[in-house]
Amino acid sequence: AAAVEEISSSMEELASTVSQTADHARQTAAISTKAASDAVDGGKAVAETVSAMQHIAEKIELIEEIARQTNLLALNAAIEAARAGEHGKGFAVVAAEVRKLAERSQVSAQEIKVVAAKSVETAARAGELINDIVPQIQKTAELVQEIDAAANEQARGIDENAKAIQQFDQVIQSNSAAAEEMASTSEELTAQAAQMQETIAFFRVETAGAKSKPRSQERPLAKPAAPSQTGGKSGKGVKLSLPGIGDGEFERY
User: Fold this and answer.
1) Which of 80, 90, 95, 244 has the smallest C-beta neighbourhood within 10 Å, fewest atoms?
2) CA distance 187 to 193
3) Could you report the per-residue pLDDT of 63-112, keeping only the tens digit for each?
4) In the 8-state DSSP scheme, what is residue 86?
5) Which domains are seen in the chain, by residue range?
6) pTM over the 0.70 mark
7) In angstroms, rounded to a whole number, what is the distance separating the alpha carbons of residues 89 and 96?
8) How far is CA 26 from CA 39, 125, 155, 212, in A?
């Protein structure tokens, strides 16, 4: 019974540990599921970022083209101002400034284009990495969910085993109490049997004493009367004389 109680206590501790593990697995499954969902959302965001950066790069190319054309127009304006002579000097100055701004805009557009291209490349690489990671995170979430289900099933099994052991302990305790009661009853029956044996032995002694009384206490038997002798002794016997009985009815000895 003590061993069963110890096993029951150990099973209760194990059930508590498994229940705690199942709870942790449940929390981990929730975190993994959320991480997988966030990774999917992150992949979508990166894809949208790549698309936006590509669109920006296209706009920068357009700005670069506008700056190039503006530069050509400024160059043509300077040529026409030179042809106009004194009347075109003011226009030539304006054309020169416009040409400078166009050149600066073109240089800046080229620099922005390089940065945008690098950003697009980086975002695309990040999108590929996230796309590779998302299935693994989803698989991890599925495995954690399976672990959670297995831990819950194990917890239920251990709980059922603990209950069965407790019932078994109760049965053992009941059997132990019944055995103690049977032992007490057996002791009582043994005592009663011993008492009966003593009583039977006492009656046997009384009966044996009654059968072994000495002969001096018994009454003497009456001796038969001596027969009357009508004649002398003969070599073959004694002749008895009885009334009403002939000699032929007796044998001689």
Assistant:
1) 244
2) 10
3) 888 888 888 888 888 888 888 877 777 878 888 888 888 888 888 888 88
4) G
5) 2-194 (1.10.287.950)
6) no
7) 11
8) 20, 33, 13, 96
